[in-house]
UniProtKB/TrEMBL annotation:
Superkingdom per UniProt: Eukaryota
SMART domains, per the entry: Mterf
Protein name: Transcription termination factor MTEF18, mitochondrial-like
UniProt xrefs under Pfam families: mTERF (PF02536)
GO MF annotation list: nucleic acid binding
GO BP, sorted A to Z: DNA-templated transcription termination
Family of this protein: Belongs to the mTERF family.
Keywords: Transcription, Transcription regulation, Transcription termination, Transit peptide
Organism: Gossypium harknessii
Length: 564
């Protein structure tokens, strides 16, 4: 898609998205008159706020021109006229005062749908509490764009409880570090807590550490001279820097490192930075370590970590895993071997329980191994997988089956015949399987062990997450067994909780407590034994066991199916 059609598509997308949020009555105004209706209403609201409510004109105008949805809702109940709409709106406002905070919050850039949750409970007018407007006026007077003040309000509401004098003092304290107004604004928008309270002379602790880093970066290493002299450019560069602090990098300690790698912040969009962080986060390593990896090796942002195909065994060899350990991997995790995509590498390594090892290898000077890895054309091709893959293309539901296969690859299963056997037994869409897998992780299953369970007993993924959760809770809480037991007997999760697991376990517990059974049967033996064999066993345990079972423990309906 070239630029012009893309521009048209973007324009109409925004247009229809906006129309869907507008009040019904407003959309009844003929489309050719809507711009005029908005202009007239904005002018009327400006006059009302300034002349009737005594709000300084410049702020009244900011509020009127930046509160589109609140204004649209207001005028939706006023009859439109091409000649007198401005007067109609003014007349309406005289008898129907507005909630000034509603219009204000939208005007400073807060999403209209969030405004309702921010409104003071018993205040409608700024005259009841001028603190918020006074703070906004002080910030705007310093040069903050009015419609960006919402970023400060949402993150640090205390800023808007400070007096104009306090805010000005805090701003000029930051300027004393050597910054002009525009850089100060960019810093404050990216790090609102620098305007937090504590007294005009108390920029201490983490704030001082942050400002020391920023001075080192922008002044000592001259990054500031490479940033355009406008608020958006400074806000963008500061937002990229903040990413590393949000990862846990210590304030006051990384200024020099950022300064020496300033091209990272000048050349790469924030989206590229965030996408690489998200990629390495999937190795489940400390976030600070990810930040330091990228700061020390910014060239890693150029690497394509999404589309290349890899050989799992080839990647392990490429990163230096010994022959002995590779042989052990092949025996223990055959379902992970074969080919996969680079984008799935974090989960592939988690399935092998080697994720920390590979990240440590990357962190300790081997990050280029990810970028320079290449796959030979005929390397690690599995004929059984290829044959099954071709059959999918000619099946009745190729798209549905491919979604399931992509799910298996995402969680670490490779291109091999074992993966295809698992594929044949899992049911549901790719997104449903992912939800069930994630819910099991949420219950405390280790990633590597869960992949092995899916390999051994694929039908574990065919149940609703709540069903599995109840079984796990019963296993851990009533039976007093850890999740590790499922490494031995994963099929436990496939048996019906109410019809099979609960009655049999509780009956064996009763037998033991009453001294009728001295043998210690395993959970697998209790649950998995077929119905006829189970009944025969009870007869051998004690003559009265069968009567007790049928009268007080067995599920009363027929139990033809052992699975949920």
């Amino acid at each position: 898609m070239n630029f012009f059609p893309r521009l048209i598509f973007s324009h109409f997308s925004r247009h229809f998205a906006t129309l869907s949020k507008l009040p019904n009555n407003f959309t009844k105004i003929p489309s050719k008159y809507r711009p005029q209706a908005i202009r007239d209403a904005q002018q009327a609201l400006t006059d009302y706020l300034h002349c009737t409510r005594y709000i300084p004109f410049v702020y009244a105008e900011h509020i009127a021109k930046n509160s589109f949805f609140s204004l649209s809702s207001l005028i939706s109940g006023i009859n439109f006229s091409t000649t007198s709409f401005n007067r109609n709106v003014l007349r309406f406002l005289r008898y129907h005062p507005i909630n000034e905070y509603e219009f204000f919050f939208e005007s400073i850039g807060i999403d209209y749908e969030e405004v309702g949750g921010l409104l003071p409970s018993k205040k409608f007018f700024f005259s009841e509490d001028e603190t918020v407007l006074e703070a906004a006026s002080a910030l705007s007077g310093f040069g903050f764009p009015w419609n960006k003040l919402g970023k400060l309000y949402k993150e640090e509401i205390l800023i808007f409880k400070a007096s104009s004098k306090e805010l000005k003092a805090r701003l000029f304290k930051i300027k004393e570090c050597g910054f002009s107004n525009i850089p100060v604004i960019g810093i404050c928008l990216a790090f609102p807590y620098v305007l937090r309270g504590g007294g005009v002379n108390e920029l201490r602790g983490e704030i001082v550490a942050l400002l020391n880093d920023l001075k080192r970066v922008f002044l000592d290493f001259d990054l500031g001279n490479h940033v355009e002299d406008n608020v958006d450019a400074w806000y963008e560069i500061c937002r990229k820097i903040r990413v590393f602090y949000d990862l846990g990098c210590e304030k006051g300690k990384i200024g020099e490192l950022i300064g020496r790698n300033k091209n990272l912040f000048l050349q790469y969009p924030e989206e590229v930075l965030v996408s690489k962080i998200e990629y390495f986060s999937r190795f489940l390593v400390p976030k600070e370590a990810i930040g330091m990896l990228i700061l020390r090796n910014p060239e890693i942002l150029d690497s394509d970590l999404e589309t290349p195909m890899i050989s799992v065994m080839g990647m392990l060899k490429h990163f230096g895993l010994s022959v002995e350990k590779r042989d052990s991997v092949a025996k223990e995790y055959p379902y992970v071997l074969g080919r996969n995509k680079m984008t799935n590498l974090p989960n592939v390594m988690r399935a092998l329980n080697l994720h920390e090892w590979l990240f440590d290898r990357s962190k300790n000077g081997n990050h280029r191994l990810l970028a320079n890895y290449t796959l030979n054309d005929d390397e690690d091709l599995d004929k059984g997988f290829r044959d099954s893959f071709e059959k999918i293309q000619f099946s009745r539901t190729p798209v549905h089956t491919m979604e399931k296969l992509m799910f298996l690859h995402r969680v670490g299963f490779g291109e091999n015949s074992l993966t295809m056997k698992v594929l044949a037994h899992v049911h549901g869409t790719g997104s449903e399987l992912q939800e069930r897998f994630d819910s099991l992780l949420g219950l405390g299953f280790e990633f590597s062990k869960l992949c092995r369970i899916v390999h051994m007993t694929p039908k574990v993924l065919n149940q609703h997450p709540k069903t599995v959760e109840r079984k796990v809770n019963f296993l851990c809480h009533e039976m007093g067994v850890s999740l590790d037991y499922l490494d031995i007997f994963p099929a436990f999760l496939c048996f019906n909780l109410e019809k099979r697991i609960k009655p049999r376990y509780r009956f064996h517990k009763w037998l033991t407590e009453n001294g009728l059974c001295t043998r210690n049967y395993s959970i697998a033996s209790i649950v998995a034994t077929g119905e006829k064999s189970f009944i025969a066993r009870l007869g051998r345990i004690h003559p009265d066991a069968l009567n007790e079972w049928f009268e007080n423990f067995s599920y009363k309906e027929s139990d033809n199916s052992i699975q949920d």
